[in-house]
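Is it possible to get an amino acid sequence alongside its tokenized fold?
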Amino acid sequence: MDRRTKRTHRLLGDALIDLMQEQNLNQITIRDITEHADVAYSTFFRNFESVEALLLARLNQFVEALVAELQPMRDAPYHVQSRATITALFVQLQQQPKLPHVLFQRPAAQPVLEAFKRAQVQANVMQAQQMGIQEIQSGLPLELVIHNTVVQLFGMIDWWLNQTQQPTPEEMALYYETMVLRPMWTLLLGTDGMLELLPEGAV
């Protein structure tokens, strides 16, 4: 994607998020979005099939930016990467509060959020398979285990957004590791394998 197209996607996505602060997704028209973004009406259809597709693309942009930010840590130990990833996620959510607000508090956005969750599950299943994890000793389906970790992450984000005094991103990363990652990797790899990825006392 060239720079001009990326800029257009960002303008349209930001316009949609702005509009969703006051309106439900199903009330927003394409003309509303293009006028708010100061982009030609016809430009929308050269880039997206629907308003929902635009919102999903905006979510994917968020993830891509997060991944790019974490690239310098790609050779770090797994437990360091995982904690840094969740910390960075909550930092970004703090810096872009409009995005989680519309996703978690606007009912019309739920189908898009669910589609995004499914995509994240599939991406994480593929990552686990690339690491050589095909079957689980307990007999649980790999996709079910991954699905549970993704759902729990989104549940923690929803909980965090509703706190008057929000835990820090670093605290949320530690909570996620303790409540979700360690049990997940114990299921996938057994206790010894889990401790290789998330050694006890790791900071």
Remarks:
- The chain has a mean pLDDT of 88.
- Residues 169-197 form the longest helix (29 residues).
- Residues 74-197 form one domain.
- The CA atoms of residues 37 and 57 lie 16 Å apart.
